[in-house]
Amino acid sequence: MKHIRRLFRIHRIFVVQELKRMMEYKGDFIVGVIGFLMVQCSNLLFLWIIFNNIPNLLGWSLNEVVFIYGFSLIPKGIDHLFFDNLWAIGHFTVRKGDFDKYLTRPVNTLVHVLFEKLQIDALGELIMGIALVCVSLPQLQIEWSVFKVLLGIAAVFFATFIFTGIKIITASVAFWKKRSGNIIYMVYMFNDFAKYPVTIYNEVIKNLITYIIPFAFTAYFPALYLLTGENPLYNVGMTVLMSLALMSLGVFVWHRGIRAYESAGS
Amino acid sequence: MIQVENLRKEFKKTVKEPGLKGSFKSLFRPKTERVVAVDDISFEVPKGEILGFIGPNGAGKSTVIKMLTGILTPTSGRCTINGKNPTVSRKSYVKEIGVVFGQRTQLWWDLPLRETYGVLKEIYEVDDKSYKERMAFLNETLDLESFISSPVRTLSLGQRMRADIAASLLHSPKVLFLDEPTIGLDVVVKDNIRRAIEQINRQEQTTVILTTHDLADIELLADRIVMIDKGRNVFDGSVGELKTRYGQIRELNFVTDSPDPKAALDYLRHFSIGEEDVSVKCEGSAVKVRFNSSAVPVSDILAYTLETVHVNDISVKDADIEEIIRRLYKQGVE
Ligand SMILES: Nc1ncnc2c1ncn2[C@@H]1O[C@H](COP(=O)(O)OP(=O)(O)OP(=O)(O)O)[C@@H](O)[C@H]1O
Ligand SMILES: [Mg+2]
Fold first, then answer.
1. Pairing of strands B278-283, B286-292
2. Which fold has domain B248-318?
């Protein structure tokens, strides 16, 4: 308990610092958010055009698709907000030998890395996601219950760690290969498929994002449960399971990687 | 308290054949070869000692330090501090040590220095009272006051080095590892840092392991020297021992007006000694003779020189540690 409190105190210092820095580089932040919103708006415009021509895409209505799309941005945004330092690990921290400093400190290296940075830009994603969910909800006839709300929150929580887990695993490759920025990027990009109902894809992509890089459990499956109330055991249960599996694998690979870490000559 | 036993570290290196074809080949079937950076290093350091850990560039010093600080996992061999082993219990091990790499900072680039110490306070679980006292002490010994509010990225090298050393001492470690802490610093800052190291060592019996290429650091601070080369121990002992073991070389300097002193002075024949024991260098009228005083006594060399050429000004110099180490680095140790 004391340990956790200590970690949160450390986190708070970094968060405050990150906020200060954001104020310092305001322009950078604003440009980032505007850029993000423009991309999202063009995606939505694209959806809107499709649905204007075919009001019913393989049984999905525009509102349902927007709900899934919005839902997908929430865990993605949370992961992006809190745990983005993993990109730095893959891109340069390991290659330059700057990972040394984590190893000389009496804190779990993974926790230290995860807590060290706050990526404020992610707020764009998060706000957009929440807004889309809120906009689409009133037009969808969803029966709510306390149980369903709780499962919904749990789904967001565990879905977040599907993102984090995948990033940890791919970032760890850097311990052996010196850099893994491109690998993180390549794998991470598959989450774009998960923003839409997986039933619109062919078998290959469907299986890929369900079983191999299971981003489908960050959006489509839990959202499906919330929309229909069907099969929570699979739709949410698998999200939890995938999340735990990926995080465990991530922690394992990370610590294996540390043993292989070679620093850099200096 | 520190025990290093048969430490070895191999790095994997991918060998790439030149050209595009080579790149393709190594993409699919990367050829790796092993580079032995540290071959077999053993030594012990008792509590409270300042150990000068030296050796030529690429000898493996930093690699050893990285294994001793839990950064690198040894290929084989062991190191322990008070029985603790970094590969077994890294977190409790690193709590007892402080580390500074002169070449790179461990501080957060964008944080003001004061905040950096605040984070380290939490990381090392230093309580408020000790933190306050410690900061006051470090502030005074390392003179941090003038830049403690500046972000780390704005510090000069000398300021940053002092900031890094203070950071490594915040949690009162039992052992302090310093890898080239005086690199690139001016004489005043060097002095300040040496004094701080000495003070910490004296007041708190902090054990210090120090690598450096500035032998003044060694002469002023080190109780003992461990020298390595090509990943192996070559010398382990006090500065005095180093001098008596390898320091039989003396230097005779004089000025002469004799026309060709080099031809006139035939030390080789006169004393029947080999080239490894004596060398003569002339620069205009100044002559420098380096000789091994265990092969020829100083008095004999002096007498022979004085009776052979006309000498104006003469002096005999003890080889200093720098000279000894230069020779050792150049030739290696047999
Ligand atoms: N991360 C690494 N990957 C591959 N080889 C390395 C790595 N670090 C060091 N080496 C190699 O190991 C050997 C020892 O390097 P090390 O940095 O320990 O030397 P050093 O004694 O600290 O030298 P210097 O005085 O120049 O700092 C060198 O040949 C170096 O090329
Ligand atoms: Mg070095």
1. antiparallel
2. Alpha-Beta Plaits (3.30.70)
